[in-house]
Design goal:
By secondary structure, the protein is an alpha/beta fold. The chain has ten helices and eight strands. The protein has one domain: Rossmann fold (3-Layer(aba) Sandwich). An eight-stranded mixed β-sheet has the order 1-2-4-3-5-6-7-8, sandwiched between helices.
Amino acid sequence: MDKVKVNNITLAYAQRGRGTPLVLLHGYPLDHLIWGEVGPLLEGTFNLIMPDLRGFGESTTVDAPYSMDDYASDIAGLLDHLSIEKAAIAGHSMGGYIALAFTRLYPNRVRGLGLVSSQVLADTPDRKQGRYDTAAQVAEKGVGILAEAMTPKLSSDSRVQAFVAGLISRQGPSAVIGALKAMAERADSTPLLSTFRFPVVLVHGDSDALILIDRAREVKAALPAATLIELKGVGHMPMMENARSTAETLKLLS
């Protein structure tokens, strides 16, 4: 992976393909490797940029609290480094929250938005408290408890479960805790929807146990021009459970 210094961290990223710049943002608590099956299907259409978000994978983080806006600023710094003024941005789960923050902060730099197993709503009070509770548990017992708890919720596919369990176990506690707190404090992005003047695609599994498909349907209802692909029998990891359909939908951002 290549690396660049931005915002007092080292951001690692993979880049492949040629064409329209497309930034793929992974979800929590994973890294860019989740795009391994989708990447080859997209590199003929896009200049793919796949970062490890701060603290995850090979990227470093800071001890101070940070927000979705800070993650988005990291991506802006990466695009500056690559001399890319405007790109399509697609995010999986937490990556979608970051993509939404990026569109709010840098609307003139967005040529298309993809939300994969994500949503625009903020956390409910119970969900917010749950994230802080999980952060405390990770601080006390380590990331292993998270891998055990989250893996069955991410997918019912045993192949995908084995992959994500290993991936989660390799992440650092500081990245996990920082991400949990940033997600807990994120704002409702619903007001942003009316400002979008670019293509929007939504990819969601109808068996997603973490973010219900209703959340994607609500975005589609607010944005009739958006494309929503509902993947039958797919859970929270469509880029692995149905890579081809995910890639074909993301191609609409070209």
